Give the backbone structure.
Amino acid sequence: MNRRITLINKIVILEIILGAIFCCPQKILAQARQTARIEFEQKGNDAEYIVISLKEEGLLLIKDHEKYSDGNRVWEMMRLDTTLQEIWTEKLETEAKARLVGYEYRDDLSYILFRLGEHEASELILYTIHIRSKEIKQYAIKQEVSFRITHFNALAHSITLGGYIHNEPALLLYDLNSEKTKLVPGFFITDTELLDVRINSNNTFNVVIADRTNKQRMKLILKTFDAQGAQLLEDAMEIDAKKMILSGISSTLINDNLLIAGTWTVGNSKQASGIYTTIVDPFSDQPINYYDFGQLDHFLDYQNSKQLAKIKARSVKANQQNEIPDFKAYVMPLRLEEQPLGFGLLTEVYLPTTSLNSYPYWSNNGTPYSSGYSPYGYNPFMSRYYNSPYQYNNAPQTSESKMLHAALILFDTQGKLQQDYGLKLDDKRLNGLEQTSDFVYHKDIIALASKKEKELRLVIGDPTGTIVSDTLHTQLNNPNEVIRNEADSNGFTRFWYKNVLYVWGYQAIRNNERKGENTNRDVFYINKIEIR
């Protein structure tokens, strides 16, 4: 009898184990959660906030209150921690004509770059703010010639300024200790384009150049320099004679391999035909890997099903016949992230549209077109994520862009295509061209996100290729309040650190319990979003 009971118990236990194996759901992918929020009440004539990531040290907010003290312009600076609690507030006084053109952060120092006037030969003023001691230092960077800055980066004790002098690439190195400017040699070459300047994890920096001096043998060149501007290595990769390199971003030596990724096209078109990658190795020839957009699984998800099938079919046929597919798109590469498993490249597809802006410069007193509630004007600095002061969005905005699609493309450690994720941007309209989406690629967490009015829309995946869609609705601090309206054109999403994003924008909020004139209020807000 006891033996029979024991046998029955074993069978029951075995059934439970088998049930757990075969009936339990698959691994649940990460989910997005809003874990903090901060609000600042706004008035219709208030300037917008500039939001600077301090990574795991929080955020730095800068605002021009359009106030003056003894003829100086007064800017308000506020540091928030990673829970969006205020740590300190300070004032920064600049000359009245100072125009903010760039910002950076590293090693507890926030770098704010101003130009004194509109002309590209005007003097540059750099401020460093120590985020712990709040010590502010000022540096004057004088210029003898007109220098159009496209890249601004911070090394340990110096900054790099990349750009153009008389349409030829130039690179300046400004030493914070000696307060002297040095011209880095090896540039000033006609028919070359400066694609990227990027700081490595070991305090060296990379410069990526497209060399078109020989139209039959164009080259993609990477040069690495130390912090004093001495060249350490150079690698030149020959570009396919049928192709033209449009853009390039280098990785930063977090992985052992140094990768360049960007877009390519055919002829002189400004529209891209696909994505390329190459591993830098000055001691051996490394091929450039070219992928047309039809070879990606989700890059074309914004197309209707009929057009999608047509583009895919043409891509397969063209590759079989060793030809180049005819599909092209306006594509902006934005960010290259490194992880032990490989690299993640963020791109956005956009469409330039007819100008709706009759004003030659941006204004803080109103937006020239209506796309929902927006009492605040376009700020050309608030959404710039990368250190490219004039690239994409920091020039006079005279045209509108329609943002179509965001794509996150993953490559292995050798730069070979693994998989991609896509997120529709629903024709989001912007006055100019700005980054609209961002992503988390941290350990086994992969998430691509973009803000759409009151919602944060996400595509969440894992390294196996499993994908789910998610929508996160904004949570207000007061349960009696609701969002009355939010301007889609004034809300943005950015990577913060590890598995965290931050989202900010402007909302009109109504309190359902209040009566009278205090029912509604306008706020600038920041939401902290964790993917876990």
Notes: The longest helix spans residues 2-23.
